[in-house]
Amino acid sequence: MADTALPADAVVVARLRARDETMFAALIDAWSPAMLRAARAYVADEHTAQDVVQEAWLGVLRGIDGFQEASSLRTWVYRILINKAKTRGVRDARTVPGLGVTDDDHGPTVDPARFRGADDPYPGHWRSSPPAWPSPEDGALAAETRRQLADALAGLPARQRVVVTLRDVAGHSSDEVCELLSISAANQRVLLHRGRAALRAVLEQHWVKEATA
């Protein structure tokens, strides 16, 4: 079940507190894939990430009666997930240092000329698509593109990887990511921009290679 198909938070919370197994299963189906990717940013392998997600859902069940609704339900669930993932990452010696911007995060950025200007109907958007953008009908190429993107995401510096995963994979807003990671809006913007720029560079190289093959 997609997020858009889920009831409002108040309904979901009430049903979870009533131990509605159907609602809990629907929530797991809707959110677990993105949670798995977020956990993977902190821990060493997929199996460990799966364990972290399971632990997070157990934490949700144990804590739902005390949920104060000061944030969205999803933000609260992800806070549990990230705390579990951080703890497991430290145990497995894959730590994500403090999420301020550091020298380690210096990487590719995007030429401002490639974005539409303030007077454009779509300010801030790309002026043009990358070369040889694969068509949705090309299943094999799309699958290879996804693999390239997953590999590139895994190879980002830890801070960038976490922010990009939460923003672009899990779909959190910038405010939610700042709250979850306890970072400033400026840090979030820089980490996201550098991470996205690095991913785009990898994909552009891949598409150019495919176009000239």
Describe the structure in your own words:
- The chain is mostly helical and 213 residues long.
- The chain folds into 2 domains: 3-91, Orthogonal Bundle (Rna Polymerase Sigma Factor, Chain: A), CATH 1.10.1740.10; 103-212, Orthogonal Bundle (Arc Repressor Mutant, subunit A), CATH 1.10.10.10.
- The chain is built from 8 helices and no strands.
- It has helices at 9-17, 21-40, 46-63, 73-91, 139-154, 158-169, 174-181, 185-212.
- Helix 2 packs across helix 3 (46-63) and helix 6 (158-169) crosses helix 8.
- It is globular, with a radius of gyration of 19 Å.
- The model is unreliable at 130-137 (pLDDT under 50).
CATH topology label of the largest domain: Arc Repressor Mutant, subunit A
CATH C-level class of the largest domain: Mainly Alpha
Give the rounded overall mean pLDDT. 80
Amount of beta strand: under 5%
CATH architecture designation of the largest domain: Orthogonal Bundle
The percentage helix is 55-70%
Principal-axis shape: globular
How many individual β-strands?
A: 0
Terminus-to-terminus distance: 39 Å
Please give the radius of gyration in angstroms: 19 Å
Looking at CATH, the homologous superfamily of the largest domain is Winged helix-like DNA-binding domain superfamily/Winged helix DNA-binding domain
Number of helices: 8
Number of domains: 2
What kind of sheet is the major sheet? none
Structure class: mainly alpha
